[in-house]
Fold this protein.
Amino acid sequence: MPLQAISIPAKTGKSPQGVFVALHGWGANAQDLAALAPMLNLPAYQMLFPNAPFPHPYSAEGRVWYNFPETFAFEASAAFATQPDLVESRYLLTEWLRSLPDSTGVPLEQTVLAGFSQGGAMTLDVGLNLPLAGLLVLSGYLHAPAQVGSMAPSSVVMVHGRQDQVVPIREAERSRNQLLALNIPVSYHELPGGHEISPRVLEIVQNFTEEIRL
């Protein structure tokens, strides 16, 4: 069951020099983040917005990377790492990302992976084990202890709203501290606001992606 994605070609009309992938949160879908594409000025990038593989339990249009147990508290749990739907999403997302160089002509080393909320959790889960150009975690968290591959990205940016009522700010801080303890460099930003992608967040995404050498 390969992932389905919205693809937006490079605005230059030429072959892309980089790829920007963004993962939506729980209950949203690919269109949710694809709607933000016009607000990013990344003309040399092909932009990809995949749908999570599982349907949302309460919405015909929503998708999820995994469902939350009743006792879920956003803490990184080794037991939760083996939840079947998370295992399936991890495999599908990893294989899909590894296939991108063949379909885009762009190596993973020139691919940025971003994610919002549950998509941010998947970004950390999968992205730390691939040689990506960088990770952007927007209102995200570690849902399992970080597993770092031998070719992990050299840049991780985390952005979180101080008034986030969905993923508490303490979970972002805890996730940041776990990554730093593993010697993963993290650029961490706490901003005013809640569980959202604000204009300031988009500015951080823009600046980070522009700074990566293609």
